[in-house]
Amino acid sequence: MPETQRPMAVTLQVVSIVLFTFIGYLNIGIPLAVLPGYVHSELGFGAVVAGLVISVQYLATLLSRPYAGRIIDNRGSKRAVMYGLAGCGLSGVFMLLSAWLTHLPVLSLTSLLIGRLVLGSAESLVGSGSIGWGIGRVGATNTAKVISWNGIASYGALAIGAPLGVWLVNRLGLWSMGLSIILLALLGLLLAWPKRAAPVVAGERLPFMHVLGRVLPHGCGLALGSIGFGTIATFITLYYATQHWDNAVLCLSLFGASFIGARLLFGNLINRMGGFRVAIACLAVESLGLLLLWLAPNAELALAGAALSGFGFSLVFPALGVEAVNLVPASSRGAAVGAYSLFVDLSLGITGPLAGAIAAGFGFASIFLFAALAAFAGLLLSLYLYRQSPKYREERNAG
């Protein structure tokens, strides 16, 4: 049985599966820093259209979550991952077409937008599929480990992908980005093909809206915690500029390094202490980090605030995710992962315009106070859910 494996054997098996998340998110990261500039400068469209090219992918991910959950539960997580990798490859084809149609701006933009929609749908298949595949292979007792490593793979890939995309375009041109995405997707498919699939769990498939209702409180906690990440990722460079500080990129790097470091060092605490306790502690640390960013008198303390925020946010997703996934039967696990992950997409989609409006009215520092209050609200919600969890457990057992 998977549960009797040694911890290192379990970890290696998990890493071999979240590798596909890494490949999928590398494909997402590569165009991230390049496309707004390309649409604005090369194709001649306005800033709104340049922003739309990025946000349309998040929209596609959000809308495709229910469909991805159904594929995982009914056809298997391995097949979902392979569909997703094929989708990544197809998005690379549309990017190649866009590069060849630069002299026809409207056609080039249309091709780019179609590719972004395909990539967004592929993201939900690869990300949720890898989690389902990992849990199916190493057992439900290792859910926290699978979700933690999946997060390390996705954030690590985005951190590597963005500068890699800039380097490729500067050296070779936009076409190289499309070709790289196609080749990476093919590599992922070749590696996934021989791997053993997780069995499809028999049993009743709960309707997606029913699953969404069950994980809603946990998802709201996740969304409130994710506002800090969205605020730092979107506005830290502008905040640094208004304060006349240098090295805003170091702030992002430190946030990412703390995030990954905390997951590697403390991921096992979720199984030992329970998801709610870990979430409460993490959201407290994240709130403190965001408050420090708000009050920071110099760049050094702002760096410390970013590091604390990354450290705190690191385990919020897996901690609340474990509790959310446990609320549904194993046969609907894919739907639960998809429904729960949807709240990150929603949070990141809302944070940009909302924090932007707050910054316009009260200054850039105020957005970190707003994010700190959101994280604290997430803490209070997690505390409430922790208090209510024995009652929910009794109801579930009785049912």
From TrEMBL:
**Which subcellular locations apply to this protein?**
Cell inner membrane; Cell membrane
Q: Show the GO cellular component annotation of the record.
A: plasma membrane
Q: Where is the Major facilitator superfamily (MFS) profile domain?
A: 181-399
Sorted alphabetically, which keywords does the UniProt record give? Cell inner membrane, Cell membrane, Membrane, Transmembrane, Transmembrane helix, Transport
> What GO MF annotations does this protein's record show?
transmembrane transporter activity
InterPro entries, sorted: MFS, MFS_dom, MFS_trans_sf, MFS_Transporters, MFS_YhhS-like
Task: Write down the membrane topology.
Answer: Multi-pass membrane protein
Any transmembrane segments, and where? Answer: 12-39, 45-68, 80-101, 113-135, 147-168, 174-194, 215-241, 247-266, 278-296, 302-325, 337-358, 364-386
Highest taxon of the source?
Bacteria
Coiled-coil features, chain-numbered ranges: none
Q: Which family does it belong to?
A: Belongs to the major facilitator superfamily. YhhS family.
**HAMAP family for the chain:** MFS_YhhS
List the protein's name.
Uncharacterized MFS-type transporter SAMN05216202_0515
